[in-house]
TrEMBL record:
Belongs to the 2Fe2S plant-type ferredoxin family. The gene is yfaE. PROSITE patterns: 2FE2S_FER_1 (PS00197), 2FE2S_FER_2 (PS51085). SUPFAM superfamilies: 2Fe-2S ferredoxin-like (SSF54292). Keywords: 2Fe-2S, Electron transport, Iron, Iron-sulfur, Metal-binding, Transport. Residues 2-86 form the 2Fe-2S ferredoxin-type domain. It comes from Salinivibrio proteolyticus. This is Class I ribonucleotide reductase maintenance protein YfaE. InterPro entries: 2Fe-2S_ferredoxin-like_sf (IPR036010), 2Fe-2S_ferredoxin-type (IPR001041), 2Fe2S_fd_BS (IPR006058), Beta-grasp_dom_sf (IPR012675).
């Protein structure tokens, strides 16, 4: 399993390359908005500012540079930004 760092709205948490960003953020204590969790609604979208993700097929509309966190697994360290500050009780990753 490849360990990576996920930076979300300036908070860094540890992550991996096999789970969706939404699942990993939740496990780290961050609570992004979501509804369907299957790529239909777009509620979980955010800007991908750095890094790359593998995104499964999705129906929801996203603007250029945006990804769906419920359908995207990071492939490298990533930096993402939601338009709002998600509730967080995150553990900061040791660097
Ligand atoms: S939660 Fe609906 S598209 Fe991600």
């Amino acid at each position: 399993m490849t360990r990576i760092t996920i930076e979300v709205n300036g908070i860094k948490v540890g992550g991996n390359t096999h789970q969706s960003l939404l699942e990993q953020l939740e496990q780290a204590g961050i609570q992004p908005e979501y509804q369907c969790r299957n790529g239909m609604c777009g509620a979980c979208r955010c800007q991908l500012q750095q890094g790359s993700v593998k995104q499964e097929d999705a129906m929801a509309f996203v603007r250029p540079g945006e990804i769906l966190t419920c359908q995207s697994a990071p492939q490298t360290d990533v930096s993402i930004e939601f338009e709002y500050q998600p509730a967080a009780k995150a553990k900061v990753v040791n660097e």
